[in-house]
Design brief:
About 25% of the residues lie in helices and about 25% in strands. The chain is of the alpha/beta class. Strands 1, 4, 5, 6, 7, 10, 11 and 12 form an eight-stranded mixed β-sheet that branches. Helix 2 links the parallel strand 4 and strand 5. About 10% of the residues have low confidence.
Length: about 300
Amino acid sequence: MRTVAIILGGGSGKRMGSRCGRGSRRGSGRNKVLLKLAGRPILEWSLAVFSKHPQVTDILVVARKEDLEEIRELCQGADLGGGKIRDAIEGGAERQDSVANAVQYLSRFGLGPDDRVLIHDGARPLVTRAIIDRCLEQLSDHQVAVPGVPVKETVKKVRDGIVLETVERDQLWAVQTPQSFRFRALQQAHWQARHDGYQGTDDASLAERIGIQVAVFEGDYHNIKVTTPEDLVVAKAYLDSIKGELVMDQSHVDRIANPVIFRVGIGYDVHAFQEGRPLFLGGIQVPSHLGLQGHSDADVLLHAMI
């Protein structure tokens, strides 16, 4: 049985601002998966974990046309081991189009209906071998399975800046990647979506709409998608918290014994007050008619600590 990992490396970096610079086809900046995290491109962290997983047989990278040459050089030059990266191919206008291109490629590649496919966001550099293990275990009983974590924050439905209702979060999960499929289920889901002109928010949603049961299993809160500059800071802080040198030929985020390093220092953060925003300090919402201005939660306490 073959297990193929599709790594999506087409992020535009729109929300990264100046960190991504200029020059993309949409004027949105450098591809975020090529930004450096702890000395290596974000994409390389994900590639390393999948390359070293014993059950992953092949890796296919999907990228924007203008990034293909650089990403192919990265795949060839990085010390990933295993020789599992088969190709880097051009993606489409949207994420769903990119996956569809990969599915067509794999159909010609000779994948069987029961072979396994893992679809992973290249901008999630903290994926672990344990998450991949659970993906593959779930495919013993299900056609589609996705990692997720229970939503911890209070969730409100809002329209025009006014709360309509508070949503019960007991059954709410934030879904992550890699999303795992039997190949036939992935083919069916994408074929039907294309036939109907349907655009989903992830690949699992395409399977849901045609009646394929999607299993959800425990992911990891550290398995974040790097989308904003703050995400880069959080990812770097987590990597720094792991004791010892990270060994990429096992799993770059495998926890070593006694992983916590205690640090002492001074930090600061500054945000201006702004009407109409919630005020968060240390992750707790404080009653106030003024909040702090920022693209994120503008939590000066957490930002000063991180």
